[in-house]
Structure formats: C-alpha cells, structure tokens
Design brief:
This protein is an all-alpha fold. The protein has five domains: about 200 residues, no CATH class; about 100 residues, no CATH class; about 120 residues; about 130 residues, no CATH class; about 55 residues. It has 28 helices and four strands. A two-stranded parallel sheet has the order 1-2. It has a two-stranded parallel sheet with strand order 3-4.
Length: about 700
C-alpha cells in the first residue's frame, strides 16, 4: 500500500473515530486495507495517554472469505450494501476494485463488458477472467454505479484534496440527501458536524436550502400566533385587547403546539437545553396543559384564558408593547421638558411625577436583567455580562443622568443645571430607540456600520487633533503674541482652526489689507486684540498647508475608512443581522409580558413566584437531605459523559497546541532565528570549505616542492 494511504488512515480515520466514538469495522484479515487500519488503531492505542479515549476496531469476516480469498468478492459486498442505502467511500489509488470503481463511477454509460475487461486487466494483471466472469462482474459494477449518490471517490494525490474526516462527513450527508429531505433525518449528520467542529460543512452541505429546515427562531418570535401576522393587526389588538378574541389574529391550536414540543424534544440531543431559547419548552407545555387544567370551567373559560396567554406571551407582542410604550415615554419626557417643567416650589407637576415613576420601573427592569437571571453564577459575573452589552451601557448612562438631573432640579440654586442635564438625558433616551431597528433585515446591519464608523471617527480625531494643536498654537503665537486671556487662547488654538476646516477663515486677522482694529485700552477689555503683522506671510502659508492636509488628506482618509467599514459589514450583512435578531429574540423572550410602567406588576409576580419556589425547594431539600448531598469542588460524572469530556479536552488540546506551534513557526522572531541559524550554518560550511581549500593548496605546494628541488 502507498505511504500516503497509510498516513490518511492513521490520521483521518482514527481522528474521525476518536472524536465521535464511532467503531471501525474491518474484514479482520491482515491483508490489504484491513491490515493498515489495524496498524493505525494499534499505533493510536500505544500513543494515547488516556485509558478512556480509545478507538475501537471490530473485525468481521465470513468463513468463505477466509477459506476462499477471491479478489473480486468485494464487489459483491459493495453491491449488496448500496442496495440497502449504505454509503461507501472509495479510496482512489489504493488498488484493487477501488481503482476500478474510481475510474468508472463518474461514467456509468461507458460501463460495458469490454471497458470492464480492460480495467480488470490493468488493475489485476496477474489474474485471468473468463468472459462469463467479466459479464457477471460488469453487471455488479453497473448495479453499484447506478447508486452514485451513495458513492464518494477520495483521491489523496489530487491537488487540493480535503481531509479524510471531511470527506467522510460529506459522504454521509450526500447519502442522506438521496433518500430524504426531512430535517429530522439529518440529525446524525449534524451531530457529526458538531462533534468534528466543522461548522463550514454543516453550512455548505446541510443548511444550504436543499433541506426544508423550519424557522425555529421565527416560530419562537411569533409564539403561538400565525407567522407573518400584519403589524397593524397586532397593534390593534394591543391597543384594544378585546380584539384578541376575534378572528383578527390567527392562533395555532393544540396539535401544532404538540408538534412544536416534539420538535424541541428532538433537538434535545444537540444540547439545546443550554440555549436561552430552550425555556420555550416550558412555556409550550404550560400552553398545552392550560386547557386541560381549566377543563372544569367550561370551553368558554378555556378559550378566553388560552387566547389571552397566547397573545401576551408571544415575544413579538412583548416587543411591540415595549416599542409603543417607549414612544409614549419619550412623548411624556418631551412634554415635561418643553411645557411643564416648573421650578420649585411650584414643581414638580403631575406629569413630571409620572415620568419619575416611569423611570423607576425602567430601573427595576435593568436590575432584573443584570442580577436576577436564570444563570447560576455569582453577582459579579452577572454584572460583567450585563455591562458587556453596549445597549445596557447606554441604559446605565441614561439612568445616571436622569438621577443627577432630578437631584439638581429639586434644588432652587441648581434648577437650570438640572434642566440642562435632563435635556442631555432625553437625547440619550432617544438614541436608545435605535435598538428596535435590529429586527429589520436591512436596517439592522446599518447599526453595526454606525457603531464601527464611530470607532473610526474616534481614531481619526487623534490625527486631526495633532494638526489642530500644531496649527492653532503656531498661529496664536504669530498673530497674538501679547494676548494672555485664557478664553481667547482656547478659542484661537482649538475652536477657530476647527471652523477653518469648514471654510470659516478669519480674513480680518490674516489679510493685512482687511485688518481693522483699535489699540485703545478701553476697547480691548472684551474684544479681540489686534493681530501682529510681522509674520503675516508665514501664517498664510501655514493656513494653506493646514487646509490641504485636513480638507484633502485627512477627509479622504476618513471617507476611505468609512467605505472599508461599510464594505466589510455589508459583505457579512446577513450574518450580522442573524446575530442581532437572535439576541433581540432572546431578550424579549426572557422579558416580562408587560411593558413599563405596567412592568411593575410583572416584577411583583416574579418576586412572589421566586419566593414560593424557594420555599418548595427548601421543603424538598429538608425531606431528602441525605439523598441530595452535593460534593463541592469535585463531581463524579457518569462514564459516557466523562469519556466525552476527556475526548473533547484531548481534541481541544491538540488543536490548541497545533495552533500555538503554527503561530510560533510563523512568528517574526522564529523566522529570524531560523534564518540566523541557516546563515550560521552556511557561514560555517563556507569556512570549512575555505579551510579545506587552504589545506589543498598547502598540500599542492608541498607536493610541488620535491619536484622543483629534484636534479
């Protein structure tokens, strides 16, 4: 067998079996492919450091195969297997029947007895077949090649060939597509893609549109309402709750709810219980069990309660309610600032007190999001995760400014300062409204564009500030060397050069012909001083240079940065939008149904539920205290789970070490070290050559001396 085939089996096949826990089945003979598979498994067992992570190889051989080693019996086995829809991976170049199939699998129309005879003579030159055997084997090959969807040819020697584990996974997905288009039939292949950490294969081969995958997030977003319900209908039902009990909005019945619950249970094998969206299962169960629990109240009560819970429990309704109430909050804030903002003791008025209560409910919701989550972590970790979101930072700034503004507003001496702070706070609350655009497929990625452009502007200001300070200080020193007023120095050093970028050039100070000022001391108290005309020509040159750099170079640099940022985000707009949509759905799926200020009722309900839940858990712990003891700092995992953890750690360790080794090899220091080592080696080699050359010359001179001295 060729050396590359042994390497493929030793690395690819063993890696695939190790990461998934699959067994390798062979013919149990020490010949051909089975022999090298056994050697690869043996080498892995010797090199493995874990006793729990083992690659299992099972050999199964028929008695007829052992006694009668017929070369072409493999074709019969392949033919029987493809009839049972079993996928096969053909290693081109490995010899035997595999090379015959690799040559003919893509050209089944050319498979006739004469072509088959030619292939057999090339691949088996030492064997002799009768015409009857050729015809029989041709029929077998025709039967095999008729199932092309089950056959995958892997040619390692071909340029750009993929890894063996990748080819195996693609072969399995290819075979699955041949007989089914249902999503649940692809769960095994999806598990393999997750186990092998090959998201690219899952995206290209499984989630490629050929399989009719259900929109899981869409189903969660709409809850139990019909997906695609017009927003105007939702808004009408929100403003007039009685419309929920009409045909304005279509709801799913009990059967679709059961189907959704079964889908969630099918996805349990993919560890979806770790996802925040997995909590939907409990809500669906509640909706399914609600009619049964209300059975004694009659069908009318069941209908009213079920529809009410279905409508207000959907995340889309929660989102719509928060948006509508947030607009109402901004309208109230605007009214208070512009119309009804009275100083003490006349104020605060009734609308202003309502605004204070509204913000208080917003503070309670932010506290719930930050500290009272379902994650079993300490408070510092929860707060760190909360602050990691930029929108939460915006909420914290808005609430802080509101508290400062209200505090100043209550003091007569700081009333105007409070108005100023609250006006700035209104701008922050209004900018927070941008978050609702994340649900839109076109506007959502634009939020990422604006965010990244703001970072670009932040770095751009460093370049601009250097030129502003350099030009401003220089012109101030040349035009007004004797003016020491700080307010005028600040205005001329920073503010005036910034305005000159946009074309506001003070010609009355720069152009000598337009200078018109008085040197009278009474007029210099609140007016600018007269400019010095000694270096007027130099100021003009500096102005031309400053405008050239800022208006041409730096502005074009900023435009180029913006263009690059837009292209990067727009090229991955779909990916950014999916992440934004997922985070938005998770946020409003976990939020209470009521929006501020009515969210206070939901908070009271959650607090009472938490108290009752803790009391129930305390009773259960008291009754079964001896049976529910938990060991801290150490846990004994079941053997299957322990094996999975060890396998995952081993694979991740190898991946990490390989990345570190590659990074070390590619580092500049390592490249320089290798180059220096090679240079030293070449220098030593050249030095050795010089020494040898000297010795040879010395020997030649010694050999020529006797000849010259001989008579």
């Amino acid at each position: 067998m060729k050396s590359w085939l042994r390497d493929v089996l030793r690395k690819g096949l063993v890696k695939a079996a190790q990461s998934t826990g699959a067994w390798i089945l062979t013919s149990a003979l020490r010949v051909g492919l089975a022999r090298h598979v056994g050697q690869a498994v043996r080498d892995h067992s010797l090199a493995s450091t874990s006793t729990k992570v083992r690659v299992v190889a099972v050999g199964m051989a028929s008695l007829g195969r052992v006694l009668h080693r017929r070369i072409l019996e493999e074709a019969q086995r392949i033919s029987r297997a493809v009839e049972q829809a079993a996928p096969w991976l053909i290693l081109a170049g490995s010899g035997g029947i595999a090379d015959v199939l690799a040559a003919l699998v893509n050209q089944p129309h050319l498979l006739v007895p004469k072509v088959a005879e030619k292939q057999f003579k090339e691949k088996f030159p030492s064997e002799h077949f009768s015409w009857e055997d050729i015809v029989r084997w041709t029929k077998l090959l025709q039967n095999i090649t008729s199932h092309q969807q089950l056959l995958t040819v892997y040619d390692f020697e071909q340029e750009g060939s993929e890894e063996l584990d990748t080819v195996i996974l693609k072969a399995l997905v290819k075979a699955c597509k041949s007989h089914s288009q249902e999503p649940q039939d692809y769960l095994d292949e999806l598990k393999l893609a997750v186990a092998w950490d090959r998201v690219d294969i899952a995206k290209s081969e499984i989630f490629n549109g050929d399989v009719e995958w259900k929109a899981f997030l869409t189903r969660i977003w709409w809850g139990d309402m019909a997906a695609g319900t017009p927003i105007l209908r939702l808004l009408g039902a929100f403003l007039c709750p009685a419309l929920v009990y009409t045909n304005l909005i279509t709801f799913s019945e009990e059967a679709p709810l059961r189907t959704g619950l079964e889908d969630l249970q099918d996805l349990d094998s993919l560890d979806t219980e770790k996802s925040p969206l997995y909590g939907l299962q409990s809500r669906v169960e509640e909706l399914v069990e609600a009619p049964r629990a209300q059975g004694d109240r009659g069908p009318r009560a069941v209908f009213l309660l079920t529809r009410w819970r279905k409508f207000w429990g959907a995340p889309v309704t929660v989102f719509l309610g928060n948006v509508v109430m947030y607009f109402a909050f901004l309208f109230l804030f605007t009214y208070v600032l512009l119309v009804d903002f009275r100083p003490p003791p006349q104020g605060p008025s009734g609308p202003e007190v309502t605004l204070y209560f509204w913000v208080f409910t917003l503070v309670l919701e932010e506290i719930r999001q930050g500290f009272f989550t379902d994650e079993d972590t300490h408070l510092v970790k929860k707060f760190t995760l909360y602050v990691g979101d930029n929108w939460n930072k915006c909420d914290m700034v808005a609430i802080f400014l509101f508290i400062v503004g209200v505090t100043c507003r209550m003091l007569p001496s700081a009333f105007e300062a409070g108005r100023t702070v609250l006006a700035m706070d209104f701008m922050v609350f209004t900018l927070r409204l941008i978050h609702i655009f994340a649900i839109h497929k076109q506007l959502g990625p634009k939020i990422i564009v604006v965010e990244r452009m703001m970072k670009d502007v932040f770095f751009f200001l460093f370049f601009l500030s250097v030129w502003l300070v350099a030009y401003g200080v220089t012109t101030q020193a040349l035009l007004h060397p004797h003016d020491g007023r700080l307010e005028w120095i600040f205005r001329r050093v920073l503010y005036r050069p910034y305005l000159q970028i946009f074309g506001q050039i003070p010609l009355d100070e720069i152009d000598e012909a337009r200078v018109n000022c008085s040197t009278h001391p009474l007029l210099l108290e609140d007016s600018p001083s007269c400019p010095s005309l000694y270096a007027n020509w130099l100021v003009i040159l500096l102005l031309v240079t400053f405008l050239l750099v800022t208006n041409v170079l730096l502005m074009n640099l900023l435009i180029a940065m913006f263009s690059y940022t837009f292209q990067v985000v727009q090229g991955n707009a779909d990916m950014f939008w999916k992440f934004q949509r997922y985070n938005l759905i998770v946020e409003y799926h976990e939020r209470p149904a009521l929006a501020p200020p009515f969210i206070l009722l939901s908070h009271l309900s959650l607090a009472l539920r938490r108290v009752f839940k803790k009391e129930a858990e305390h009773k259960r712990e008291h009754l079964g205290e001896a049976e529910h003891k938990q060991e801290h700092l150490e846990r004994d995992l079941p053997d299957p789970l322990d094996q999975k953890v060890v396998t995952w750690e081993t694979v991740q360790k190898e991946n990490f070490l390989s990345k570190m080794e590659k990074r070390r090899r590619d580092s500049e220091g390592e490249v320089l070290r290798k180059t220096a080592h090679r240079v030293d080696f070449v220098a030593k080699y050249l030095g050795g050559l010089r020494e040898q050359e000297k010795r040879i010359k010395c020997l030649e001179s010694q050999a020529s001396e006797p000849r010259s001295s001989s008579p």
